[in-house]
């Protein structure tokens, strides 16, 4: 399905990453670690699963291609918001410049995850501009009770496809005050806990949300 040179590139990349982590006892909260945990059975209630390096490479390729479109959209909308919100842009630039200075001009995984304001900017971009669709398939008949008097039940047959309007939920003033405003502070450490569950759906929600 993919050219041999592409498969070989990813196979070598994944193998080197796995070897480096195992040799140096490195554990990170990312997709490769999740697959390694599946292979060793270290996830809660999981039995060890026979996953070869090729299996993990295939999953990584699927993850890469699946995230290409959404990541591109995220970058475009983030650049737009930074352009029309110069104060946010200036604060983010200061954080990036400080991080560069503290790490001799290098940015790696460990320094990236310490950039707190950068994380809030990305999250707020995803709130205001969800980059992909969100759907689910009903595996059994479900009846959703109405919230208000006089409304009817919503009945879903097994196999029904449901589209969740993330864009509308993300801009609902009932959940997000002044929703049209680009405000990264919504996702600061102080405010993140105030976000109502299942109202930020850029990565889905629940046990089968996006990895």
UniProtKB/TrEMBL annotation:
It is found in: Endoplasmic reticulum membrane; Microsome membrane. GO terms for molecular function: heme binding; iron ion binding; monooxygenase activity; oxidoreductase activity, acting on paired donors, with incorporation or reduction of molecular oxygen. Pfam families: p450. Its cofactor is heme. It comes from the Eukaryota. GO terms for cellular component: endoplasmic reticulum membrane. Its main location: endoplasmic reticulum. It is a peripheral membrane protein. Heme binds at residue 210. Belongs to the cytochrome P450 family. This is Cytochrome P450.
């Amino acid at each position: 399905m993919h050219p041999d040179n592409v498969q070989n590139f990813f196979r070598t990349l994944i193998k080197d990453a796995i070897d480096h982590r195992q040799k140096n006892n490195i554990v990170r909260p990312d997709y490769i670690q999740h697959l390694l945990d599946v292979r060793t059975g270290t996830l809660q209630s999981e039995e060890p699963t026979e996953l070869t390096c090729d299996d993990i490479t295939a999953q990584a390729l699927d993850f890469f291609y699946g995230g290409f479109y959404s990541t591109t959209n995220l970058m475009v909308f983030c650049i737009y918001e930074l352009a029309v919100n110069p104060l946010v842009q200036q604060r983010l630039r200061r954080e990036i410049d400080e991080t560069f200075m503290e790490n001799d001009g290098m940015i790696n995984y460990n320094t990236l995850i310490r950039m707190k304001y950068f994380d809030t900017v990305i999250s707020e971009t995803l709130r205001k501009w969800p980059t992909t669709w969100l759907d689910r398939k009903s595996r059994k008949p479900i009846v959703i009770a109405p919230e208000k008097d006089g409304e009817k039940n919503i009945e879903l047959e097994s196999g029904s496809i449901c589209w969740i309007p993330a864009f509308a939920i993300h801009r609902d003033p009932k959940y997000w005050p002044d929703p049209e405003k680009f405000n990264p502070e919504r996702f600061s450490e102080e405010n993140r806990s105030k976000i109502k569950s299942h109202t930020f759906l850029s990565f889905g929600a629940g046990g089968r949300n996006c990895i």
